[in-house]
Amino acid sequence: MSDAETETGGRTRRGGLVGFLRDLLVILVVAFLVSFLLKTFLVRSFYIPSQSMEQTLQINDRILVNQLVPDLVDVQRGDVVVFKDPGGWLYPRGDTPPTGFEKVLQAVGLAADTSNDYVVKRVIGIGGDRVQCCDAEGRVMVNGVPLDEPYIVIPPGETRASGIDFDVTVPEDSVWVMGDNRYQSKDSRYNQDQPGKGFVPDSEIVGRAFVLNWPLNRITWLGTPEGTFTGVDQARSE
């Protein structure tokens, strides 16, 4: 083989490697850009740090959140929503802060947000609803209609869906939220002494959780059991 042929073969191999690396870089940049756009406008991932939503969500679960709610899609009763702490809802946590690399992944949407700024609860009442606890059977009522809530956890020996009584009317453009683990959830009931009086403004809602995506053996679509809020809208208009 001549020297010219050897040199040409070397350039071809080097050119092939350079081309491969260039294409790989383009793919990575596009992937990061798409992920960033999704995280910014459509879907965001969050980490569950507490037991307040058990058994629906457990500690260390990851969820995907639809950020079109409530800006383009109205929030509904029964939605599991993520919202920014209105102030005083969260206890300080001594978590290890994410590394620089983890922060980058969180920023572009490739890792779940683990910051101590967000709360996950279930919407029980929307603007204009009257929410009360409890009826003679210990059930929460919305607009006078008692709710059968199969998702809630009540400790042995307790029969009521809430350990405290309340009777509130939700302001417009706000929601009343409660955790599924009713006796282990610092939710609207326990924040009525805060400036927002326990109500969460729609403007603070990041979005609606629509899927539990980690761990893999617990992947689940999140929603409201059929029939839980049947009759609530009709009762409101009467």
Automatic annotation (TrEMBL):
Catalytic activity from the UniProt record: Cleavage of hydrophobic, N-terminal signal or leader sequences from secreted and periplasmic proteins
GO cellular component: a single term: plasma membrane
Signal peptide: none
Subcellular location: Cell membrane; Membrane
One example GO MF annotation: signal peptidase activity
Pfam family, one: Peptidase_S26
Residues annotated as the enzyme's active site: 52, 121
This protein's UniProt keywords: Hydrolase, Membrane, Protease, Transmembrane, Transmembrane helix
GO terms, biological process: signal peptide processing
Primary location: membrane
Keyword Cell membrane: no
Topological type in the membrane: Single-pass type II membrane protein
Database matches in SUPFAM superfamilies: LexA/Signal peptidase
EC numbers: 3.4.21.89
Entry-linked CDD domains: S26_SPase_I
All residue ranges annotated as the Peptidase S26 domain in the record: 22-214
Record field: transmembrane: 24-43
InterPro entries on file: LexA/Signal_pep-like_sf (IPR036286), Pept_S26A_signal_pept_1 (IPR000223), Pept_S26A_signal_pept_1_CS (IPR019758), Peptidase_S26 (IPR019533)
Family that this chain belongs to: Belongs to the peptidase S26 family.
PANTHER family linked to this entry: CHLOROPLAST PROCESSING PEPTIDASE, SIGNAL PEPTIDASE I
Protein name: Signal peptidase I
Organism placement in taxonomy: Bacteria, Bacillati, Actinomycetota, Actinomycetes, Micrococcales
